[in-house]
Amino acid sequence: MNTPEKLIIFDTTLRDGEQSPGATMGQADKLRIAKQLERMGVDVIEAGFAASSPGDFAAIQAIAQVVKNSTVCSLARANLRDIEKAGLAIQAAPRKRIHTFIATSPLHMEKKLNLQPGQVIEAAVSAIREAKKYTDDIEFSCEDASRSEPEFLYRIIEAAIREGANTINIPDTVGYAVPSVFGEFIKNLREHVYNSDQAIWSVHCHNDLGLAVANSLSGVHFGGARQIECSINGLGERAGNCALEEVVMAVKTRKDFFNLGCYIDTRQLVPASKLVSSITGFPIQPNKAIVGANAFSHASGIHQDGVLKARDTYEIMTAEEVGWNTNKLVLGKLSGRSAFRQRVRELGIPTKSEEEINEAFARFKELADKKTDIFDEDIQSLFDEQYTEQQNIKFVSLKQASETGKRPYAEIVYLENGVERHGQAEGNGPVDATFNAIESCAKSGAELLLYSVNALTLGTQAQGEVTVRLSFGGRMVNGNGADPDILAASAKAYLDALNKLNVVREKKNPQFGNDAAAV
Ligand SMILES: CC(=O)SCCNC(=O)CCNC(=O)[C@H](O)C(C)(C)COP(=O)(O)OP(=O)(O)OC[C@H]1O[C@@H](n2cnc3c(N)ncnc32)[C@H](O)[C@@H]1OP(=O)(O)O
Ligand SMILES: CC(C)C(=O)C(=O)O
pTM here? Predict the structure, then answer.
C-alpha cells in the first residue's frame, strides 16, 4: 500500500450548521464549538458568514483570535462587500481562508442571480482577486454544481484557479446526487479542467436523500477529491450536511479501502456531538451512527453472547475510540442467558447455582415482556424475590400515636417464623418511631439508606407504596409495602427488606442505632 494522501476535514457546523432552522448560535457558543473542533484536529473551521450580520462578523473575529492550529474561514458571496467583511473578520487568525461562491447551474443563474454565464465567471474572478488582498488561501465553490453543465464548470473552475483559488469545492447543494454518478462527476471535472492539479478538490454534500456521506465518500474515492466539507451531527440547511463523525470513522475504519490519512482525534467525536447538541437543543437520535446512544449498545441475546466472547463479532470499531466510555449490553426481552449472567456478576449478586440463575432468568423474561427498561435494581429484585418466597417475617398490626408537642410513639406486632413479636419505641417522626419499634425487637443492625413514598392511586383514599432500602454486611436490598395507611405501608416495606436481608434471626447488633429519618 502506498503512503496515504491527506484528507482535509473542513467543518462547517458554525456556518452551514447554523443554517439549520432553530440552530442559531451566539458568539460564546460558537467559540466553545470552535475550540472543540480545534482540539479534535479539524483542518479548516468555517466559522460563519461574516457579511450576514454584525454578530456573525464578531463571532468569526473572536474565533480567529483564539484558534491557532486550524485554519479559520469565512464564507462570502462573490461580491466585494462580502469579501471585505470576510477578510477583516479572519484577519487575526494565523491560518485564514476566504471561501467565496456563486451558483453555476442554469436554473440558479437565470432564476436566482439573473446573470448570464459570462457575468457569473466575471463575478467569481473579481471576488477571488479581491480575496487575495487578505489571504493566499482561497476556496471557490460552484453552488448547485451537481445540477450544472460540465462544460460551464470547466470554464469557471479554470478561470478561478487561474485567478488564485487553491481549493475548488463541488457542492451537491440540494442533495440531488447519487454516489456512483457524483464520484464520476468529480473525476470528469478533474480530467477536463486543464489546471486541475493546481488546486485541491473538495466536496460539500447535502443530505436531502440521506446520501450526503455516501456521495462525499464517492467524491473522494472515485473522484479524487481530497477535502470533505462536513458538520458535527450532520447539522446543516434543510436535512443537513455530511456528518463529520460518520465520514471520519468510515475513512478510519475502512483505511484498507480508502487509504487516506485523516488526523482527527476520534475520541473527541462524542464530546463534540454532545456539545453541539446541547448548544443547539437538537437531540441526537439514539440510532445515529457513531454518536447515537445505541451506536455501541447490544440488545439481542445472540449479539450479546457474541460480543461477550469477542467484541469484534458485532463491533467494527470500538466505543472507546470515538469517545464513549465503553460499549453496552442492554438487557431486555430479546436478551439471552449469557448477557444476563454477565450482568448478575457485574452487580455482585451472590448466586449459588446455575439453577438459581436459570430461575431468575425465567422471571427476567416475564418481566421484560411487560417492561421496556430493565434497570439494575430490577435484576437485583429478581433475586430478592427468590428470597421472598421463603418469607419468614410477616406484618400483623401497627398502633401509632402522634400529637403536637409530643414525641411520636409506635407499637408493632409481626410474625417471625410463626412466632409473634412485639416492639415499641419513640422516634423523631412517626415513620422513625415505626422503624424503631421494629428494630427494638428485630435488632438487625441494618442501615437505612433510602425511604420513599409513592401514591399508587389518586385522591385522599390513595393506596400508598413505600420503598425502603437497607444495607447490611455488604448487601443492599429494597423492600416494598403498600397500604392505604402510609405508616402501615412503611412498616411492611421495612419488614419486607429485613426478610430479604435474612439477618433478623441472627440478631447481630443488639445496639440498634436510630437510623430512620424523622418524617
Ligand atoms: C448554498 C448556501 O448555503 S449559500 C449560504 C447561504 N447562507 C445564507 O444565506 C446566510 C446568510 N445570509 C444573509 O444573512 C443574507 O441573505 C445576506 C446578508 C447574505 C444578504 O441579504 P440581502 O442583501 O438582504 O439579500 P437576500 O438574502 O434577500 O438575497 C440574496 C442576494 O444575494 C444574491 N446572491 C446570492 N448568491 C450570491 C453569490 N454567491 N454571489 C453574489 N450574489 C449572490 C442574490 O441574487 C440576491 O441578490 P438580489 O437581492 O440582488 O436579488
Ligand atoms: C456555499 C456552498 C458551499 C454551500 O453551502 C452549498 O452549496 O450547499
Answer: 0.80
